[in-house]
């Protein structure tokens, strides 16, 4: 991790803002410096063109040189030199102070003989001020000549130096003020985050219902806070379900454990006949089987909550699955004086995990045999691209206030929690249905209870060796 990544967010934002502002100030300062320099150059050039026109007029009028035609004009200011050259470089005339120093080089003289040029010159002998000269060709009575006028650029240099000093002094001050402003803005923007952090630090499982404060603006931070509050709600709901799950599991485990302990203590309290010992052992075995089933059901639910219930799909006829369930529970139904009936299309096939499908149907059948009356119907039908596996009875049906929560864990229709069940059978049906991509439902139909789960129906693949064969309905 780099040093920059270790800095607090507000410092990183301030640093980024300062770097960006420094680039902007540097660009603006350079732009301003160049524009002022160009403006000063244009002013000097305009002044030089005016003087050059005046000197050129004098030269054209005199035809014999500057001293005879316009000495007063040239002598007005010695710091502004003027000079007349012929095309071969001979000095025809010059203002005092230049002596024999020529203001143009040979290449510049050649170009000035054809068109007006502007050039910068170092200080001439006897002066410490650099010059800016303008040379323009002039046609005189004696032939062609080049008029050169110059002006000191010392004022331009001083003006640019003053501007540069102001930029170098004002730029850092402006950058510092802008950085402080950027830090203040970053701190103000992150203040709601800090407020949410303090509130999140105070959130605990012992005090549910607390939520993060949201800023009044509908911005990214507000949306983040809303998302975190939603997540807190989900975590609280999951924690509540876990607590309820542990509480209900403890309650359900306590009953068979207490019964098992009681049976064993009674059997060991005094010598008993063989028949009483066998009855106590049978009761203990029943309670042990109940504990095993409860533990297995809890394991199924725990796996479903953790990584999803694993399933191994296979294709099998729906009628075959229902026949298996009828044969498995035929004895239990006969002992209760009930009958099991099946109804399924012989061509209807399922793509399911056979073991889990039998477990789900078994829970529905046991629920119907335990709480219902009359014959029990096992029905498989296709509807709206899904296969429904129903278990119906002719009893009194589900209580109206129980249907909506029938598939919740540890939920029973009898509030007193009596009976051999733990309230997990229908919950496991729902878990198995969801693992297959389906869902579980319950209703009261024709005076009895109807519980079923539905799964997606997949058409069987056609046999490539028999392209004319139609898939079963």
Secondary structure layout:
Blueprint: H1 3-6, H2 9-62, H3 66-74, E1 82-85, E2 91-94, H4 106-112, E3 117-121, E4 131-140, E5 143-152, H5 154-202, H6 220-269, H7 274-306, E6 314-317, H8 318-328, H9 330-335, E7 340-344, E8 349-352, H10 354-371, E9 376-383, E10 386-392, H11 425-435, E11 439-445, E12 448-456
Parallel strand pairs: 7-9
Antiparallel strand pairs: 1-2, 1-5, 3-4, 4-5, 6-8, 9-10, 10-12, 11-12
User: Could you give the order of the helices and strands?
Assistant: HHHEEHEEEHHHEHHEEHEEHEE
Distance between the termini: 63 Å
Poorly predicted spans:
64-77, 464-473
> Within the CATH hierarchy, at the fold level, what is the topology of the largest domain?
Beta-Lactamase
How many domains? 3
Dominant shape:
rod-shaped
CATH superfamily of the largest domain: PAS domain
Account of the 3D structure:
The chain has 473 residues and is α+β, with helices and mostly antiparallel strands. The chain folds into 3 domains: 3-158, Beta-Lactamase (2-Layer Sandwich); 220-306, Orthogonal Bundle (Helix Hairpins); 314-456, Heat Shock Protein 90 (2-Layer Sandwich), CATH 3.30.565. It is 53% helix and 16% strand. It is built from 11 helices and 12 strands. It has helices at 3-6, 9-62, 66-74, 106-112, 154-202, 220-269, 274-306, 318-328, 330-335, 354-371, 425-435; strands at residues 82-85, 91-94, 117-121, 131-140, 143-152, 314-317, 340-344, 349-352, 376-383, 386-392, 439-445, 448-456. The protein has a 5-stranded antiparallel sheet, with helices on both faces. Strands 7-9-10-12-11 form a 5-stranded mixed sheet. Strands 6-8 form a two-stranded antiparallel sheet. Strand 1 and strand 2 form a beta hairpin. The longest helix is centred in the N-terminal third of the chain and has 54 residues, at 9-62. Mean pLDDT is 80; it is low at 64-77 and 464-473.
């Amino acid at each position: 991790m780099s040093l920059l990544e270790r800095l607090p967010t507000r410092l990183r934002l301030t640093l980024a803002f300062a770097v960006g502002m420094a680039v902007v100030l540097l660009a603006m300062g350079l732009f301003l410096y160049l524009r002022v320099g160009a403006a000063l150059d244009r002013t000097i050039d305009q002044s030089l063109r005016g003087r050059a026109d005046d000197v050129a007029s004098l030269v054209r009028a005199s035809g014999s040189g500057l001293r005879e035609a316009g000495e007063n004009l040239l002598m007005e200011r010695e710091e502004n030199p003027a000079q007349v050259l012929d095309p071969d470089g001979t000095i025809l005339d010059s203002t005092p102070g230049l002596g024999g120093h020529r203001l143009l080089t040979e290449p510049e003289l050649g170009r000035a003989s054809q068109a007006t040029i502007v050039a910068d010159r170092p200080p001439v002998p006897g002066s410490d001020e650099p010059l800016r000269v303008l040379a323009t060709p002039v046609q005189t009575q004696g032939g062609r000549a080049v008029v050169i006028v110059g002006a000191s650029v010392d004022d331009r240099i001083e003006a640019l130096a003053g501007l540069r000093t102001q930029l170098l002094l004002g730029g850092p001050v402006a950058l510092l003020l802008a950085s402080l402003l950027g830090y203040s803005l970053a701190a103000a923007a992150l203040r709601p985050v800090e407020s949410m952090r303090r509130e999140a630090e105070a959130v605990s499982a012992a005090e549910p219902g607390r939520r993060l404060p949201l800023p009044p603006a509908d911005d990214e931070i507000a949306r983040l806070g809303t998302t975190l509050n939603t997540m807190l709600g989900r975590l609280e709901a999951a924690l509540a379900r876990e607590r309820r799950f542990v509480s209900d599991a403890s309650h359900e485990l306590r009953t068979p454990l207490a019964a098992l302990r009681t049976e064993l203590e009674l059997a060991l309290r005094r010598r008993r006949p063989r028949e009483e010992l066998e009855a106590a052992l049978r009761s203990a075995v029943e309670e042990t089987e109940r504990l095993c089933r409860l533990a297995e059901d809890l394991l199924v639910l725990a796996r479903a909550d953790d990584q999803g219930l694993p399933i191994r799909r296979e294709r099998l006829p729906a009628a075959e699955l229902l026949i298996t369930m009828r044969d498995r529970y035929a004895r239990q139904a006969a002992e209760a004086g009930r009958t099991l009936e099946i109804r399924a299309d012989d061509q209807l096939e399922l793509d399911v995990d056979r073991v889990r499908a039998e477990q789900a149907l078994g829970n529905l059948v046991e629920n119907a045999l335990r709480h219902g009356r009359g014959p029990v119907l096992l029905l498989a039908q296709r509807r709206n691209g899904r296969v429904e596996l129903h278990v119906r009875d002719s009893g009194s049906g589900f209580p109206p206030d129980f249907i909506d929560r029938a598939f919740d864990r540890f939920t029973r229709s009898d509030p007193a929690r009596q009976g051999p069940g733990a309230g997990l059978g229908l919950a496991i049906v729902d878990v198995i249905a969801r693992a297959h991509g389906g869902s579980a439902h319950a209703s009261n139909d024709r005076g009895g209870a109807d519980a079923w789960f539905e799964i997606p129906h997949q058409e069987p693949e056609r046999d490539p060796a028999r392209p004319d064969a139609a898939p079963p309905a």
